Amino acid sequence: MKLRLDLLKHLTAEDLAESALKSVHRYKPEPLLATTGVGFLRSATPEEIEQEMADSEALICRLKERAAQDEQAS
C-alpha cells in the first residue's frame, strides 16, 4: 500500500483516536506493567487484518474528500 503523505494535513485527532480504539483490544500488558510500562500487540486474525484494510481504505476516502473540499474552498 502506498503511503499518502499528501493527505496527512487532512488527518484529524478524531481520526487517530478512532483508529487507536479499534486496535486497543489486541493490546496485552506484561504481568509487570506497573513496573515496566510495557506490553505488546497480539497477532491479528485474518478477519481483523481484512477489517483493518477496509478501515484504512475508508479513511483514505474521507481524507481525499476533505482534500477536495479544501481545494474547492481555495
Report on the structure:
The chain is mainly α and 74 residues long. The protein has a domain at 44-74. 58% of the residues lie in helices and 8% in strands. The chain has a two-stranded antiparallel sheet. The longest helix has 28 residues, at 46-73. The chain is elongated. It starts with 12 loop residues before the first helix and ends with a helix. The mean pLDDT is 88.
Distance between the termini: 29 Å
Counting helices, strands and paired strands, the structural category is mainly alpha
Q: What can be said about the biggest beta sheet?
A: 2 strands, antiparallel
Radius of gyration: 16 Å
Order of adjacent strands in the largest pleated sheet: 1-2
Order of helices and strands: HEHEH
Helix content: 55-70%
Could you tell me the number of beta strands? 2
Number of helices: 3
> How much beta, percentage-wise?
5-15%
Overall pLDDT: 88
Shape: elongated
Low-confidence stretches: none
